[in-house]
């Protein structure tokens, strides 16, 4: 908790608080994952040749498209 609430004390980012939510959203976007669920997008799964995973996630109602 301290890592996410207290400003950094040393280094180039002194005084800044880690903005994990923004970092996580950017990480998901770069990876091709849905930013709300953290599940890879259909496009990303198909790009990786994981069409069986697409069908599995659809059957569980975890992805819609």
Describe the structure.
By secondary structure, the chain is mostly helical. Helices cover 48% and strands 0% of the residues. It has 4 helices and no strands. It has helices spanning 2-5, 20-31, 42-47, 51-59. The chain is elongated. The relative contact order is 0.11.
Q: Outline of this structure?
A:
Helices cover 48% and strands 0% of the residues. With 65 residues, the chain is mainly alpha-helical. The longest helix has 12 residues, at 20-31.
Helix content: 40-55%
Average pLDDT confidence is 91
How far apart the termini lie comes to 36 Å
- Could you list the spans in which at least 5 consecutive residues all have pLDDT below 50? none
* Rg from alpha-carbon coordinates: 17 Å
Question: Which features does this protein show?
Answer:
65 residues; mainly alpha
SSE layout:
Layout: H1 2-5, H2 20-31, H3 42-47, H4 51-59
């Amino acid at each position: 908790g301290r890592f996410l609430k207290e400003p950094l004390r040393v280094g180039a980012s002194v005084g800044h608080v880690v903005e994990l939510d923004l970092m996580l959203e950017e990480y998901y976007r770069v990876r091709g994952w849905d930013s709300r669920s953290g599940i890879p997008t259909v496009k990303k799964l198909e790009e990786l040749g994981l069409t069986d995973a697409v069908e599995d996630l659809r059957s569980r109602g975890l992805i819609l498209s």
